[in-house]
């Protein structure tokens, strides 16, 4: 049960990702039980929760890297858990991912980093790959840095290059795991603006794992809040509305706190 009541009808045509009855964990260790939610086409959808609540694990389930203990996940209409390897590969071609620890390859230039998924997944001629990679770098404001090494640019620029790499295959859904972790507030706000601009101009669906409150209120269309203790979704909806109307004590504390690093007390 969430703050917004029961989950929407099963035939929500706007859903690009549909999660039903998802129980996830590792062997005997259950992290979350019976999760139900949709990610709608074109929205910025944020997964919130304290550290260790299972945000990164949920993201990895949504891209088929982990098998659910129970339940189903449909990505662009295909059941990712039931898919065979070829089908899963086809689905994965349609999503872009920036992992929490998803660093750039330090021995490659930005252009080579961004070009890499094209080399792995396409047979395009080299000049075409370079043109696409350069266009992606321009889109994130790094057009002049194509030949730089990651160590020669700032942390915020590295994040932008990693986003360019994640979206080089023109994904339907872009997954970003804690994109602003480790950035100062101003760089982090710049990154938020970039993410919003990408969502709007490319009409892309973006799923973000975050616990940066300022960022959530700035960019999230909708959030789900994973609650470690109840092993479920404590709230779902527009973050400002949840902050103002939720009567769930932890949701209130989480969304009204001023210290962005506060976690749920043990
Ligand atoms: N591959 C794995 N095998 C076993 N346990 C894992 C694995 N990945 C994560 N966990 C555990 O699952 C819990 C949630 O991890 P994670 O999804 O990374 O949390 P979050 O991203 O919310 O901080 C943690 O207790 C973590 O140790
Ligand atoms: Mg994580």
In short:
This protein has helices spanning 55-62, 85-92, 110-121, 126-139, 155-166, 185-202, 213-219, 239-245, 249-256; strands at 15-26, 29-40, 44-49, 70-75, 78-79, 95-98, 173-177, 205-209, 222-227, 232-237.
Model description:
By secondary structure, this protein is of the alpha/beta class. It has a domain at 1-94 and 174-179 and 205-258: 3-Layer(aba) Sandwich (Rossmann fold), CATH 3.40.50. Helices cover 35% and strands 24% of the residues. The chain is built from 9 helices and 10 strands. It has helices at 55-62, 85-92, 110-121, 126-139, 155-166, 185-202, 213-219, 239-245, 249-256, and strands spanning 15-26, 29-40, 44-49, 70-75, 78-79, 95-98, 173-177, 205-209, 222-227, 232-237. The strands form 2 sheets. Strands 6-7-8-3-9-10 form a 6-stranded mixed sheet, sandwiched between helices. A 4-stranded antiparallel sheet has the order 2-1-4-5, covered by helices on one side. Helix 6 links the parallel strand 7 (173-177) and strand 8. Helix 3 runs parallel beside helix 5, helix 4 (126-139) packs across helix 5 (155-166) and helix 6 runs parallel beside helix 7 (213-219). The longest helix has 18 residues, at 185-202. The radius of gyration is 18 Å and the shape is globular. The two termini are 22 Å apart. The chain binds adenosine-5'-diphosphate and magnesium ion (MG). The site of magnesium ion (MG) has 4 residues, from helix 1. The site of adenosine-5'-diphosphate has 10 residues, from helix 1.
């Amino acid at each position: 049960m969430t703050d917004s009541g029961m989950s929407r009808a099963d035939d929500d045509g706007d859903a690009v990702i549909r999660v039903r009855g998802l129980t996830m964990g590792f062997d005997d260790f259950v992290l979350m039980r019976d999760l139900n939610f949709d990610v709608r086409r074109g929205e910025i959808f944020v997964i919130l929760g304290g550290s260790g609540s299972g945000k990164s694990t949920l993201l990895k389930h949504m891209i088929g890297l982990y098998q659910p203990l129970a339940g189903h996940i449909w990505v662009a209409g295909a059941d990712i858990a039931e898919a065979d390897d070829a089908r899963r590969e086809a689905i994965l071609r349609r999503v872009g991912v920036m992992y929490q620890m998803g660093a750039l390859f330090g021995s490659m230039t930005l252009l080579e980093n961004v070009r890499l998924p094209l080399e792995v997944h396409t047979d395009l001629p080299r000049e075409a790959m370079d043109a696409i990679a350069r266009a992606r770098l321009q889109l994130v404001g790094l057009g002049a840095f194509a030949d730089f090494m990651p160590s020669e640019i700032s942390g915020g620029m590295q994040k932008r290059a990693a986003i360019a790499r994640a979206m080089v295959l023109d994904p339907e859904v872009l997954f970003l795991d804690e994109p602003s972790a480790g950035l100062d507030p101003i760089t982090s706000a710049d990154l938020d603006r970039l993410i919003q601009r990408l969502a709007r101009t490319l009409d892309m669906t973006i799923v973000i794992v975050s616990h940066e409150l300022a960022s959530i209120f700035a960019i999230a269309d909708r959030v789900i809040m994973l609650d470690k203790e109840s092993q479920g979704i404590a709230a779902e909806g527009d973050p400002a509305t949840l902050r103002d109307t939720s009567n769930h004590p932890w949701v209130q504390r989480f969304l009204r706190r001023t210290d962005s690093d506060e976690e749920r007390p043990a």
